[in-house]
Amino acid sequence: MLKSFQSIFKEEYQSIYQAPARINLIGEHIDYNGGKVLPAAISLYIKAWVRKNNTKNVRLYSSLNDHLYICPLTNIEYKEEQGWTNYPLGMIYTLQKHGYNINEGLDIYYTSNIPAGSGLSSSACLLDLTCFILSEEFNLNISKKDIAIFAKESENDFNNLSCGIMDQAAISLGKEKKAILIDTANFSYEYKDIKLNDGYTIVVMSTNKPRKLTESKYNERVKECNIGLKTLQKEYKINNLCELSSNDLPKIKELLDPLIYKRVKHVITENERVYRFIEEMKDGNVYNMGQILNESDESLRCDYEVTGLHLDTLTSVSRNHPACLGARMTGAGFGGCCIAIVKEKDIKDFTKVVKRKYYEVTKIKPSIMQVEIVDGVKKIA
Ligand code: GLA
Question: Is the CB of 182 under 6 A from ligand 1?
Fold first, then answer.
């Protein structure tokens, strides 16, 4: 901590909580289309030091911007000038809307080592963490699954991002060494071992490109999928796009506008790639897993169009290194992060070469991280 909790709030903290970031192994941009997704929680965290403050105000401080926000617990509204605190405030608002009684203020001091704007889902992390804190501090007994549901609702309605459930679920339900296979059509889930044979591991790489327009572009894709779904529902009895299969594509092509067809094609083929990836992961077949990551990335680049120069450069320089079996963007895209399957013993050289080549093209230094797969949100003290 740069400044101490004591120096900000004039009292000592009572508890410490943490929530992890997440990666998605495969199943991108299909969690709002009823698809299956395969995220995992990773060892980058937002931590929060907390005390009840015996007032009717919540006081929020982040070591990242050194400003103390003081907000009444009643009549909470989204306001541009509230900046990042719109996430914790939105969470309080959402729980109040559901009838939870939050009648005393909290002092919360947040710190984070999740690279800002990296697409590793720091917003869902902040939401889940705050929801969990509220549940613990006020004995609300909100289940991990409901934390994800409320956090998603808060992000959709208060922060106006039409995201699916993947991030909030991964961060709340995460488990050490496991990926979570989530069926977003009915929010059921099961844990899967992340098995990688022959000394390979997963590397996370951030483009470190400042993200712009991510929210509006994201919402645009959601709208395009909804247009596709509405049109196809005239022909097919479906509730969501992922009920279709790639055998339907020739017919679908005739029914849709070319741009919407490309979006729908990504969604349908990506969902099928999730099944294939899981089959390969059972046996730890890293060569085929790497190949499927590359196919996914190609589809996100050409059909879904959510990558761009920075992500494309980072994935292609990674793939060109002999230690790498496959790479793809992870998360929303438009900047943000990639994942790659890389031979563990060659990581040093991989890192050196990828950093140099990426910098030559973009004049930005990327971050390359080896992370652990960890548990979801919890109280640590
Ligand atoms: C963001 C959203 C998720 C998901 C991914 C893309 O991270 O929050 O719900 O849609 O993008 O797969």
Answer: no
Please write the tens of the pLDDT for every residue from 137-163: 999 999 999 999 999 999 999 999 999
If one counts the domains in the chain, the total is 2
Convert the pLDDT of each residue in 102-112 to its tens digit.
999 999 999 99
Atom of ligand 1 nearest to the CA of 163: 9
167 is catalytic: yes
Closest CA to 181 of 288, 316, 299, 40: 40
Cα of 26 from ligand 1 centre, angstroms:
11
Q: Tell me the CA–centroid distance for residue 82 and ligand 1, in Å.
A: 24
Full residue range of the structural domain in which residue 274 is found: 200-370
Tokens of 363: 């004049």
Residue nearest to ligand 1 atom 9, measured at CA? 164
Of 288, 336, 320, nearest in space to 118 by CA: 336
**CATH code for the domain in which residue 95 is found:** 3.30.230.10
Coil/strand/helix, residue 138:
coil
Instruction: Give one DSSP letter per residue of 45-82, joined into a string.
Output: EEEEEEEE-SSSEEEEEETTT--EEEEESSS----GGG
Question: Is residue 379, in this structure, part of any structural domain at all?
Answer: no
Pocket test for ligand 1, best of 33, 161, 167, 187 (most atoms within 8 A of CB): 167
CA–CA dist 261, 62 (Å, integer) = 43
The model's pTM is 0.97
